[in-house]
Amino acid sequence: MAQTTPKTVLESLAQDIAAVLKSMGGSAHQNLVVDCVAALKRQRGEAVNTPDLRQKIIETFEQYRDWFVRPFGEGSQRWALAGDFA
Question: Which pTM was predicted?
């Protein structure tokens, strides 16, 4: 059975993802988003395990589809802020 990430963690990550995307003009490649969120966490003094963080960020992206979209379609690795969040 897959382990699920607590909602508070996902919401915090969603806010970090949104901040990163906003700072990049509203969209960016998934790998760049992961790297930037990891950097934000390190700046705050948080421990970062990049593979775990990557999985949690992707989980967050999927859970918060009202915040984020894939502007080039579902197979794309590019993420963007959705409507009201852009």
Answer: 0.87
